């Protein structure tokens, strides 16, 4: 298999443009960096379009490559890229010699399949991809049934979301929607809300989380807006800081909910 040797190759140029959110939305495709994350996307059934592998690393580590690489090669979706050219599609300092191009899956609120007593997390107006990814990683660890991204400023398949989530964004049911759409869905499903607020009087240890519930955490700078006028809960703090990072708050709430539910 001859590797691609030109940075001007149309497929490489297309892949490189997927680093921008606007082009990802327009094309309906996104990139995944790293062997672990690519494997998790494949295990989740997301459609692989093309797998770019740095030619030198492919030859030197052929014996230790994941088993699924052979299947990708048989499907003729594996493309080798010359080492000096691979940087065209690689992301930042993390370069494992593999970048996968996937079709963006369709994820809608009405397609969610929830258990009888669901535990959801609402991430409202989150701006930083790394924070959203960390939230997803914690929600996966604590068995949250789904994450609803309400009016988030970052897209679900931003490279930093994928990286910070360790690929759990592919396995965990995650849906992006507007605030009104999310609130209408919760009302329709008869799921109550428990909103994290620094000025709430009820602590997370006092709150009831064994019923159908959506835990709500807000934007990094301003917290939750008035649209989330629901029962509030606070996380006690004893230091000089006046709030937690939103991903930490989400992890603490999800952990307590899982404890109450007998994890």
UniProtKB/TrEMBL annotation:
It comes from the Bacteria. The keyword Methyltransferase applies. Pfam families: MRM3-like_sub_bind, SpoU_methylase. Keywords: Methyltransferase, Transferase. One of its GO terms (molecular function) is RNA methyltransferase activity. Gene3D superfamilies: 3.30.1330.30, 3.40.1280.10. Its EC number is 2.1.1.185. Residues 119-253 form the tRNA/rRNA methyltransferase SpoU type domain. Residues 9-100 form the MRM3-like substrate binding domain. The keyword Methyltransferase applies. One of its GO terms (biological process) is RNA processing. PANTHER family: RRNA METHYLTRANSFERASE 3, RRNA METHYLTRANSFERASE 3, MITOCHONDRIAL. Belongs to the class IV-like SAM-binding methyltransferase superfamily. RNA methyltransferase TrmH family. This is 23S rRNA (Guanosine-2'-O-)-methyltransferase RlmB.
